[in-house]
Amino acid sequence: MSITKVTLQSPIEEKIAWAEVFYRKFGENLLKDKTITLLLYKLKNAISVSRKEMEAIGITDICRECEQLDGGSCCGAGLENKYNGSLILINLLLNVKLPKKRYNPESCLFLGKTGCSLMSRHVICVNYVCKKITDRIDPRKIISLREKEGEELNTLFLLHERINSCQVKG
Ligand code: SF4
Ligand code: SF4
Question: What is the total count of domains within the chain?
Fold first, then answer.
């Protein structure tokens, strides 16, 4: 499989375009790989477990309140530049619909009307907790969440490796 690669420094629009073209051309082939489908399945489950834990320990409510009252502040414009083409491709493999334009000029491109539009997020986004959260949530609960997020991030790493090895072989 080959296609002109983008780098981490490429503009986000080029990374998205690269991922969309790659997905259209080779997505079906990637999804025929049993290791990739298994890892996508495990990743979806791990993300679901992490999100449920965030709800269970009260982070989701704090963030909802923050977004409603203070407009949220952690998903600022520019954070989308942390994403590389492969992570955007993984979201396409997870059937995520990517936003076509920025919902709020001051926010990350991936922030939509109802929150982050991505299913699989960068480690920076997964690990971020602000003071509003650390002030209100028992640190032991945050440690327990971290363990679940660790599973999500490990699986994501393995998936990246597998997709990269398929691209090299192809
Ligand atoms: S992480 Fe902090 S700043 Fe971001 S939405 Fe949640 S409470 Fe607000
Ligand atoms: S969580 Fe989503 S919307 Fe927020 S900075 Fe990360 S990618 Fe952007």
Answer: 1
pLDDT in tens, 150-165: 999 999 999 999 999 8
**Taking a C-beta distance cutoff of 8 angstroms, is the pair 58, 137 a contact?**
yes
The verdict on residue 68 lying in a domain is yes
- Centre of ligand 2 to C-alpha 164, Å, is 24
DSSP 8-state assignment for residue 131: H
Centre of ligand 1 to C-alpha 88, Å, is 23
Residue 107 has a pLDDT of 92
Asked whether residue 65 is assigned to any structural domain, the reply reads yes
Q: Assess if residue 48 is contained within a domain.
A: yes
Name the residue range of residue 109's domain: 12-169
State if residue 66 touches ligand 1 by the CB under 6 angstroms criterion.
yes
**For residues 151 and 57, what is the distance between their CA atoms, to the nearest angstrom?**
18
Whether residue 159 is contained in a domain is answered as yes
* DSSP character string of 36-92: HHHHHHHHHHHHHHHHHHHHHTTHHHHHHHHHHHH---SSBTTGGGG--HHHHHHHH
**pLDDT score recorded for residue 114:** 82
